[in-house]
Each structure stands twice: as structure tokens, then as C-alpha cells.
Amino acid sequence: MSQSLNLDDRHLGLVTDLYELTMAAGYHVYGMADQRATFELWVRRLPSCRNYLVAAGLEQAVHYLRHLSFAPEQITYLRQHPAFRHVPNNWFERLASLHFECDVWAVPEGTVVFAGEPLLRVTGPLMQAQLIETYLITTLTAQTLVASKAARTVTAAQGRPVFDFGSRRAHGPQAGLLAARASYIAGCTGTSNTEAARLLGIPSLGTQAHSWIMAFSDEQEAFRKFGELFPDASTLLIDTRDTLQGARNAIASGAAMQAVRLDSGDLGQLSKEVRAILDDADRQDVKIVASGDLNEYKIRDLLAKGAPIDLFGVGTELATSRDEPTLNVVYKLVEQETPQGTFGRFKLSQGKKNYPHPKQVYRQRDAHGTFCGDRIVKALPPTPTLPHQGGGSHSPSPLVGEGWGGGEQGDPLLVPLLRHGELVEALPSLEEIRRRCAEQVSRLPKELLALEPCQSYPVEVSEELEAELSRRG
Amino acid sequence: MSQSLNLDDRHLGLVTDLYELTMAAGYHVYGMADQRATFELWVRRLPSCRNYLVAAGLEQAVHYLRHLSFAPEQITYLRQHPAFRHVPNNWFERLASLHFECDVWAVPEGTVVFAGEPLLRVTGPLMQAQLIETYLITTLTAQTLVASKAARTVTAAQGRPVFDFGSRRAHGPQAGLLAARASYIAGCTGTSNTEAARLLGIPSLGTQAHSWIMAFSDEQEAFRKFGELFPDASTLLIDTRDTLQGARNAIASGAAMQAVRLDSGDLGQLSKEVRAILDDADRQDVKIVASGDLNEYKIRDLLAKGAPIDLFGVGTELATSRDEPTLNVVYKLVEQETPQGTFGRFKLSQGKKNYPHPKQVYRQRDAHGTFCGDRIVKALPPTPTLPHQGGGSHSPSPLVGEGWGGGEQGDPLLVPLLRHGELVEALPSLEEIRRRCAEQVSRLPKELLALEPCQSYPVEVSEELEAELSRRG
Fold it and tell me: Could you tell me how many CB contacts below 8 A there are between chain A and chain B?
């Protein structure tokens, strides 16, 4: 009678665009469903206000792929759908017993990436590899968006903790969890979202809402009672009536407090005055938390003016990636084995360059370890001399091959993730991903870390791939 | 080992900001948890590119409220959380057996609303009424954002169907479902998201991806085979290589087709040329579907130039409300019963006007039925002479009272939704909500329906409320 529209892990098969399913039925009927195909996912253009992106969301994508299945009621729905009237019964049966068995290579979460670089490469039966497009794109886009925004915000805060306060502004309850995770990857210290903190094992932070202050007749009483119950976690919100008087009340109340929070007004000026009030009362130990429509630009400007703010809570701008709320992510067929041979595939649209064939990206570092350029190349075909990963390879696979241990070409960005649908190795922990992100960002050329647009990072495409394109164009 | 971050309906209690929980514990410890309080939720400002908003998301909010509970592992998490170290055991027990029992009034989904107007009013025990803030805001914001964008898009399409194609761009898998629902409310004809279509019982539409065309060596074969399997649902994607040649191939292939889809290039020019090619071949029956980064402005311009497009697929812009990806929604304490009496509550921040006390909004129509102004007034206290809704009212409640059957003051926007946590009456169906929205939008002054900013709609606040503010300010 009412629905939450929260998704159930057991019912993700149908969370895809209808055309993925009509195509899947078509590939089945025309004997193409098992043709080995490779799809790649990449960001077509960097948003104008992003100098780099931070790849995120892969764990959720992997979870989906490994648990992909259709619930009986979803199969029934398709059987009754008018578009599928002429689809034979054995396709529905096939769907009902679907098990994802593709090989997947991907750029690890926390890696800095640029436009045109494959973030994910799926090789396997054409029907399966196609079906997953919609869920993969939305899952990787949502977190990459927020991680990329968060990385800028964390940089702007120059080492001061930044907390995700954005759950209420995220595009729905799940988007809040995804934003909390992505923010943490990119260096935020934690989140206000309690369930996200629980599920992810990350720090949660809370203060009070204005309603707490208003619920007491007296501000000092509100402060005192809060500090009494939460003596080690007491951040007092001092702007409900008057920020400076609030600061004086916080001191006069004698409340236990570790910090005060400013949520409105001229944060630069107020933070200085509040700091002075605290210091005059010998409360140098009390930190100042600022929140209220903050973003990377405002944080930079506050710190440039010497605002004595110790911790930033960032909500709306972070959780919605407000200035750039979307990424142009595509997932395209790039190679296909047919009875006539293996062919590179690409779409020839106006102004859109898509290169055929599975690809790898190599990243070069200069003598100081700073990233100085990426090169997109055709992925090497598998070579039997390299160590073989497990048995049961029934067809040539790009999973082995491609000396991806680094070398002259630089560091390869794509690494093997799934082999026949199974994890090649355990996924990294969130802490490992977060450390990777910090290390990656630290290796970026300085000009890319500025908040101003500077999309100067060189990403070149190999002569071999360019030649493929001009030969067919 | 990996997590989907899809939310489970049985685990929504902790999907809230940590401060809601610390405050809840505080209200419990200080004997205030059962004080009767009223909170209201409203949009503080209209985004500059929206002349009105369409309220949406209420069904999901109600579902949450009616199923609100804490899973054992969530209680355990809080017990171990360092912030809650001094919170007594009986608070955790109280949380574990929490049952939402507030009264809720709300503006029905599909209603046109403006800044400052309460969309939802919650009256009940302070602790519960506070806890729900985060989930309520995110749920109502996400759908109101998209419904408001969709209404503009549908208006721009002047009666031509608009389909939601945005799932892959939404901020995660759930956001895609929410966007599909909100779009449908605001007049979209359906969605590409198959699970959304199944869950909501709304039309789904699919065509092909470019990969289908690329997977065949020959475009005509790709078209023919699709039409063979889907003779009644065959929209052929003709822009993979060359749009005009694609149109000719669609005809020459002899494929069954109801429509062709253009997804790139100059849609205005191409649609005219494709229409001519189809008409020359006596295929006046074949419709033209356009997609590719469309929004209300582009649709308006295409139609103004006479583009013969029959159906629009809109993705990114719709599902992310790209130009305005956030709403400034707040949820504030406005009244509280204490041992000392009942007090209106409001925060006195710079530049932010919050009025105390429960409120109602009345909407006036002119002689033609066009909406001509809203008035926010203090909600009437309950009067025993009005019909009583069910039994068991143990305390005065604003649920009855407030002659909300219309009259001289205009039509009241807020209607009773939950009484002691139970539905007052069955929720409207999605079709009813959609009809309501169409009717509401049709009653807007013409200038508000233009795409240009025009925030001229008069919303006044009663003298009584203004007086309350100045008396306390």
C-alpha cells in the first residue's frame, strides 16, 4: 500500500534500462548472447570545475555483479510485458538462472582519473556484459562525483578535518550513504550519517540542532544539560540567537565542551570573535566547528582570511556535488568475437571519439614522483608465458597478459578484479582506499590542485589506436 | 566483505544524523521526550530557476514513519558508540521498542508549493518528532526536486510525451527509482527504468543502445532483427553512424518499426530531414523520438523551430535536476508543550524568518480558477464541535479543527495524513497524484509556466504570525 523504494539486494536484476533487456533477449534469440565481447566505461569529458576525478564506487559495483539475479516476480513482470510478447520461453528461464561470469578489470577506488580513460572493462558473454550497463554507470558515477568534489574540499581545508554533513541534501536515503563513503575515500574525516558510519566503520560526528537549544527556555541550560550527558562529545551550537552571546553563554554555563559550532552569519569574522571570547576565558582547548552552505571556495577564502576554524562540516555542496552534479559516463562495446572473427567496435558520432578494442592506461611519474602524463594504449593480448590466474579459461582472455606490474611505460591503471565473475583477490578495505586516494592526490601536479579550472594534464592515445580510428573513420 | 549500500526497510532507524540521536537521548534523560512538540518542514527559498515547486515523496516518507524501527545491531552500535557512554540503559530499550505515534499533516503529493509554506507538520512526542528529521528531508527533497524539474520539461514539450531516461545519471540506484516516480507525478509518460516501472505500475520504454547496432556487421540487419523480435515495440536508433543514412537503412531494411530515435547531432535539423525521408517512403506512421542531453530549454527551442519530434527522452537533466540540484529544505521546531505552558518556538538567525506555532496555508483562486495567492496562517486549535477522527485522542491535537474544507479563506493545503502514527485514510494512487499535479499546474498563472525566472506568486503571512515575530524578535 505504500512503498519505501529502498532496493532489495535480491532484486537488482531489473534495476536497469528496459533496452538492456530487449537487447539481451535479442542477443539470445539470434545466437549472439555468448559471443565474447568487451565493454568499457569511461568519463567522456571532465566537468569544467574539476581538474581531475577520484574513482569511487567500485565495491558497490562488484557487489551488484556478484549478486546479480532476477527475483521470480521480476521474471513474471517481463513475461507479461507487452514488448516481450514474442520472446521465447527459454530466454526467461535463462534470465532466472543468470550468474554473472565475466572478467572485469578496473581502476582501483581512490585512483585519480581523467576523461577518456577506461575506469572499468568488462569481457564476457555479450548478453551479460550488456545487461549491467545502467547499474554500473549509476553506481560508479554517484560516488566518483562526490569523491571528486570532496577531494577539492579536503585540499582547501589544508589539513583541518572536513566532515560530511550532507545526508539530508543527498538525492534520497541511499545517496546519503554513497556520499558518506565517497567523501571518506577522498579524505573527509567522517560523516553525520549514523547508519553510514555503522556500515562503513567510519567516524560519526554530531552536535545539536537549533531545536535542542530552542527546546530549553534558557540557552545556558541547553548547553549545560548537553555537556552533562555527553561530556566527551560536546559540541555546542552557539548561533541560535546571537553567536557572540552564545559563545559567552557556553562559557558561563560551565558546560562540558570540546567545541562550539557556528552555522550562520559571517563565519570569518564570527570565528575570530568567538576565538577571542574563548581565549579570554582560558578556553584555548575549545575548538571551533563551522558549517552552513560551505564549499571548497568558501573554505579557502575563510582560511586565507585567517579564520580560526578547526573543523568544517560540509553538507549540500558535497553530497550533491552541487556545481557539477553529473558526469558524462558512458559504457560502450569496444570489441566482439563473432563467427567471422574478432572485431574492434566503436560508434562514429559527431565530435565523439571512441576508440575500439580493450585498452589499458599507463601513468608516468617524473623524478619527484609527480604524475606527468597518461597514455591510453591497446591492451596486450594474453601471453601464455605470464602466470595464469586459476584454471577454467575456456577462451582467450585479456585478464592475463598486459605486463601490468609497471615498467618503462609507467604504472598501469587497470588491474584485474573479477575472473569469470569471481574476485581475483579480496577487495581493499575502505582505509586502504582512502590512503590510496591521499597518495594519488599528493602526486598530482600543483596546478591541478588549485580550485581554478586547469585541465592541463596530458592524456595521450597511442598511435596504434589513433590509426585504428582513422582507418575506419 | 562487499556491501551494496542498498538500504533495508527493517533498518531505517539509524539512517539519520547522529545529532538526532544525541538529542533524542538528551530529551529522554531530561524528561522531555514525551513533551508534545510540533515541527514543520518547508523550503526556505525557491531556486532561482524554479517559479514553483511540485511536492513529491510523501508516500516514501509515510512508509518510513510507519515502519520506523531500530534493528538489534543498530542498538548495539549505539551502545558501543563513545558519545553514548553516559546514556542510561533505558534509553536504548526505549529506542528498540520505538513506534512512531505522531500526528502528521501534509500537503498532498502533486500540489504546487512555494517557499516558506509548510509541506509537512509533525506533532507528537518531542523525541520522535526530532529523530525523523534527516530521513524526512532527504526523501521529500529528492522527489520534489525532480518533480519540479519534470513539470517544466513536460510544459515545454507541449503535450508530446516525455520519458524519464535518467536512471544511469541519478545519484545511485535508489535515486533512479525516486526520479522515475517523481517524473511520472509531474506528467512524464513513463521511464526507462524497468524496476521502477514494475514497482510503480507505470509505462516503461526502451529502444536500443548503440552497442546493438554495432554488434551486427550491418545496420539494416540490426534493424531487421530487432523489428522481428519486437514487432510492436520497435524504436530503431538511427544515429550510430550517420543519422540520415540510418533513416534510409531503417526503411530499406523492411524492419517492423513504430519509431526511430535520434540521439546526437543537430536534433532540429536532423528531425526535419528524417521526417522527410520517412514521409517520402510513405512512413508517416513512424514517429521520431529524440534524446541526448535534453532539457526544458532545448525542447522549447526545438519545438519553436518546428522540429517534428513526437517524443522526448530526457535523462541527466531530469534525474539530477541539473541546474538546481538541491533545495533548501528545513525542519524546525515551531511549538512545544512544557510544564510551564505551550510556547511557539523559532530561531532568530540573520536573514532567516521562521514563524512560530503550527501553520496552515490557504490558497485563493480567481474567477477563472487560477491560483492568485497563498496565505500562511496560524493553524486553528482543535474545536470539539468538528467531527472527530477515530478514538483514542489522549491530548489536544491540531489534527481536528482548522476548517480545512475550504471556504472564504481559500483551499487549505495541509491535510491530515497520520493520526497517532496511523494513516487517516488510504494514500492516493500514483495516478491520482499525477492527475492532481496536472490540475494544479494548469491553475498556475501563465507567467509562472514560462521557463524564465518569474517568482511573482504572492505568498503572504498573516498579521497574527508577523506580530508574534516582532513581539519576540
Answer: 399
Interface with B, mutate which of A22, A79, A320, A422 (most B CBs under 10 A): A22
Q: Residue B311 is inside which H or E element, if any? A: strand B311-314
**Which residues in chain A are closer than 8 Å to B15, comparing Cβ atoms?**
167, 173, 176-177, 193-195
- What is the C-alpha to C-alpha distance for residues A389 and A398, in angstroms, rounded to an integer? 11
Nearest in space to B173 (alpha carbons), one of A97, A114, A13: A13
Domain with CATH 3.20.20.70 in chain A: 206-291
* CATH superfamily, domain at A206-291: Aldolase class I (3.20.20.70)
Summarize pLDDT for B38-58 with one digit per residue, the tens. 999 999 999 999 999 999 999
Confidence of residue A382 (pLDDT cuts 50, 70, 90): low
CA contacts within 13 A on the Cβ side of B198: 24
Collect all residues of chain A within an 8 Å Cβ-Cβ radius of residue B194: 14-18, 21, 77-78
The size of chain B, in residues, is 473
**Is residue B405 predicted with pLDDT exceeding 90?**
no
* A56 neighbors B171 (Cβ within 8 angstroms): no
Residues of chain A with CATH 3.20.140.10: 9-147+327-472
Contact A169 B141 (CB under 8 A): yes
Superfamily of structural domain B9-147+324-472: nicotinate phosphoribosyltransferase (3.20.140.10)
- Residue B394 pLDDT greater than 50, yes or no: no
Predicted local distance difference test score (pLDDT) of residue B472: 66
pLDDT at position B382: 58
Asked whether the ipTM of the predicted complex exceeds the cut of 0.90, the reply is: yes
Q: Do B23 and A212 touch (CB under 8 A)?
A: yes
The reply to whether residue B212 touches residue A26, judged by beta carbons under 8 angstroms, is yes
Q: State the smallest CA–CA distance between residue A183 and chain B in angstroms.
A: 14
| Facing B264 at nearest CB: one of A225, A320, A349 | A349
Concatenated DSSP letters for B82-117? GGGTTS-HHHHHHHHT-----EEEEPPTT-EE-TT-
The answer to whether residue B411 scores a pLDDT higher than 50 is: yes
Q: Which residues of chain B does CATH 3.20.140.10 include?
A: 9-147+324-472
Residues of A in contact with B7 (CB under 8 A): 4, 6-7, 173-174, 177, 195
- Asked if A461 and A372 count as a contact pair (C-beta separation under 8 A), the reply is no
- CATH superfamily for domain A9-147+327-472: nicotinate phosphoribosyltransferase (3.20.140.10)
The distance of A25 to chain B (nearest Cα, Å) reads: 9
Contacts of A139 in chain B (CB under 8 A): 172-173
Q: What is the pLDDT, as a whole number, of residue A455?
A: 80
Report d(CA A223, CA A227) in Å as an integer.
Answer: 6
Task: Report if pTM > 0.90.
Answer: yes
